[in-house]
Amino acid sequence: MCSRTNPRSSRTGRPRSTEAHTAILEATRAALVELGWSKLTMGDVAGRAGVAKTTLYRRWANKNELVVDAVAVLFDELELPDLGSLQADIEHVVLQFAALLERPETKTALMAVVAESTRDEPLRERIRASIVDRQKRLVLAGRERAQQRGELPAGRDPMAVDATDDLIFDVIAGAVVHRALVSAEPVDAPWVARLSALLVGGLGAAAAAGA
Amino acid sequence: MCSRTNPRSSRTGRPRSTEAHTAILEATRAALVELGWSKLTMGDVAGRAGVAKTTLYRRWANKNELVVDAVAVLFDELELPDLGSLQADIEHVVLQFAALLERPETKTALMAVVAESTRDEPLRERIRASIVDRQKRLVLAGRERAQQRGELPAGRDPMAVDATDDLIFDVIAGAVVHRALVSAEPVDAPWVARLSALLVGGLGAAAAAGA
DNA sequence: GCCTTTCGCTACAGGTCGTAGCGTAACTCC
DNA sequence: GGAGTTACGCTACGACCTGTAGCGAAAGGC
Q1: Into how many domains does chain B fold?
Q2: Biased-composition ranges for Low complexity (chains A, B) (predicted)?
């Protein structure tokens, strides 16, 4: 999860300072807010964290991996309380996600690391493990809950269920990111309501067609 | 559209070489393919184009603006032939868009410039004018065509029609980008069929509810 | 032919990257 | 308590990239 070469749980020697670890990640987020991605430098982060620049390189191979770790923890805030209906659940999590993307540190960092990951397979895996997969659980939970309520039919074919989960995930996350960062329009309640209605309607139509 | 300070159609003096212009943009795309975004340098592009580095800076203020122009022309390839049904039209344009995102130069450049645009308002406007708005016309055309076929009802409220167009645009473009770049899964025919069915079903359900 | 603008070239200051080497600090095992 | 191991801060460094300045030459319009 954290560092460059996992020290193989070496029990001997001086342990790595956990305070330095958290200070570095916090300094990275602060630097992202102030400077953005392109003007963020390793030396600057080290200075903010009160740490030598070499210490950063001992733990992270480069800027990309450091930023992924610094931003990943923010995505753990996302939750999916039961609000009684599929549409309400979707609207709630979308608004949460939008609020997360409003923060300058996520806004500027997320797209940048994704861009780098197109040419860096290990980085892509790191992003998938630290960020993407943690959001996918929300889709699973929402779908299962809707099935228990009877809003969606129980899926027969597990392959088809998986495919639909993946589709919904890409649609929701993609639409919100595109709206917020590319179109640069607000992800507000009216828009979220439209999106949720579209999804619920589409899922209902698909279920009706499949029955 | 192109350069740093529009020379205000100055009729006097040596004109800018259009050959150099196209050579630079082509060299930029080639460099993106080979090196990716982060390792692309202005000096390298100048060398590939057979042009002095200073010439690049006379026309583009920085790497971001150059790359936007270099990639923008690729998006002009997208077209929307009439395939007889809304779902077929959607599937066709999504597959086109996916093929575009498969190319390494667009894959790596698009997210990078979007990331930079979160802290650079002029760059965002340049992206919007050069890339985003050119895609939105496809949504308008597809929706109008579906209304003429009777697949979708004629919109009463023009505000609501605009909002739905924007929503569909963000959903389609966002989902494809997220699938291709974040989830890193193939945008193939089965997935596209699922997405199109979801959208058509959702639009139909919304129309039925609105009637 | 004169004026204007662009061109290629060279040089440059400023900044960043990522590494190496050193002595010191912290912790474990014997 | 000592030996061994690892992390730390610090400094210095070469390599590279950025963006600009200045020069003489080239290519057009009037």
Answers
A1: 2
A2: 1-12
Q: Which residue is nearest to nucleotide C20 (CA to C1')?
A: A54
The mean pLDDT of chain B is 92
Q: Is the pLDDT of residue B65 over 70?
A: yes
Q: What is the pLDDT of residues B44-59, one digit of tens each?
A: 999 999 999 999 999 9
Same domain, B82 and B124: yes
Cβ–Cβ below 8 Å for B194 and A163 = yes
Q: Identify the closest residue of chain B to A164 by CA–CA distance.
A: B194
Q: How far apart are CA A64 and CA A109, in angstroms?
A: 9
Would you state the structure tokens that stand for residue B199, as one six-digit string? 């959208």
pLDDT at B1: 52
Give chain C positions with protein CB within 7 A: 3-11, 15-21, 25-29
Do A173 and B176 lie within an 8 Å CB cutoff?
A: no
CATH, residue A145: 1.10.357.10
**A141 alpha-carbon distance from chain centroid:** 16
Average pLDDT (A175-204) is 95
A:16-55 Cβ neighbours of strand D under 7 Å: 16-17, 20, 50-55
pLDDT one-digit tens code per residue, B9-24: 567 889 999 999 999 9
d(CA B112, CA A29): 19
Which one, of B92, B163, B173, B167, lies nearest residue B131 by Cα?
A: B173
Q: Which domain covers residue B174, as residue numbers?
A: 72-210
* pTM, entire model: 0.92
Provide the pLDDT for residue B150. 94
**Cβ of B10 less than 7 A from strand D:** no
Domain boundary among B59, B80, B109: B59
Same domain membership, residue A148 and residue A85:
yes
How many CA atoms lie within 13 Å of A99's alpha carbon, on the beta-carbon side?
Answer: 12
B202 closest CB neighbour out of A170, A185, A202: A202
φ/ψ (deg, to 5) at A129: -70, -40
